[in-house]
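Schema walkthrough. Field components (list of strings):
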Amino acid sequence: MDDSLRELYQEVILDHSRHPRHFGPLASATHEGEGHNPLCGDRVKIYLSVDDAGRIADIKFEGKGCAISQASASLMTDMIAGRSVAEAEKLMDGFLHLVKGEDATDLVGDDRERLDIMAGVSAFPMRVKCATLAWHTMKSALEHGMAAKSE
Amino acid sequence: MMAHAKLRTVGAFVPPRADFEILSREVYGKPLVYLDSAASAQKPRQMLQAMTAFAESEYANVHRGVHFLSAAATERYEGARETVRHFLNAAQADEIVFTKGGTEAINLVAASFLAPRIQPGDEIVLTVVEHHSNIVPWHFLRERHGAVLKWVDVRDDGSFDIDAFDAAIGPKTKLVAVAHMSNVLGTVAPLKEIVARAHAKGVPVLADGCQGAVHEIVDVQDLDIDFYAITGHKLYGPTGIGALYGKRAHLKTMRPFNGGGEMIREVTRDIVTYADPPARFEAGTPPIIESIGLAAAIDYMTAFDRAAVKAHEASLLSAAREAVSEFNWLRVVGDAPGKGSILSFETEGMHAHDVATILDREGVAVRAGHHCAQPLMERFGVASTTRASFALYNTRADVDALVDGLRKARKILG
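Field assembly_structure (string):
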């Protein structure tokens, strides 16, 4: 098989897309956002519960989409829970660098290791938007509170 | 005009691969298998050469100069109009308006024909299969003029029930707008019957022929249709040009579309009067070189026995349909009898974009997504489909590559 395909659809990604973590609504959400990719019609909803200290106590997502967008959302929610808003945004910056094939030196340690499974997306420019949809939606949810939409 | 092609009409149809340079290229080290002609068709060398030759030897602006080249270019431009007239079998060349594409042709009808005739509450009948280009212009009239959109459904196999049109067309209906061929399902609408039912109630009909004109033989007089929109780039022609057929009696009553040069009779500081159709609707310098390309593309495709081309495309569709019927994880969307050569499907547990990405790495170009037909996606309860579309240059080997690619996608993602 084409190596770039093997990297894109590696087992961890397929596992996340088939068995997404943190999937479903979040009753305690303080922030939520809806993301839409008008190119393919995919939608994702992100729910966040941010406490008074600015920490993301819980995060969940709902939506339908391709393996890349689902795996990315699942992985994101897995990694974001428990972080501060500032840390989440910093992680997002690193993730964006990674999937766009840019210098991602801001991603280090465990974060780098876990997100590295998404690095293969950079070889598929038409699919970068699939990988970033959940992240952009999370960011706009954090910025706009309960009524954010992201495209 | 294209004698080389005439030779091929004897016996079985042989796809003219050599006329399409791009079909010999590779992608990712694999031979290109182009199954996305419903989005845009590839370009035959004869069409490209016609544009180049015209631009190199006869080009000037049209309808303006008195000089030699302007006259020559004008003659060629009007010759292209005549080619389109003949292609659609319109009665007169001045019933053909050049536009920048099918989308603009439909917007022209919405803005210049229908908008002035709409009172709040008036209805426009369209179908769930429409491409956004035959939906959004009517939404404009809903938003701006209070029109009400009425939707004709299809059966589960994607076919139309003609009685559904009768039910939808009422005393307030001002237009029926329908795709001649669905770009997702391949369904061919029973246009002649739809026109008859609509006319019985005094309602004009517009057909979006962007797909239909490629695969069906269109006779606007026989159909008695009021408007028929086509686009060049799906007809093996260039981008940037399309055409609207409109009955002369309609065009004459229609207000101008864009304002500018060439569409006027007289302009003073106080008033402006307008040219007769089709010039009234062709403001500004038109797509002149593209008109030569469109005419050459029409000459190219009509030099083949079109019934043989259609049979060829149908045989590819049926081979693909049969092969995928063995995949119990794949559901075809649209199985209407007599449908055109478009195969849309959804795949269980595999998103269309993932399927298309894997096919792409096999060299197989297909479309994945909502195909600019979101109401149709909603009707069939799918977010997106994968679509393979077959054109005159496709072969059985292309079908095999598609089927092999799908097997591979299943292996990776399933």
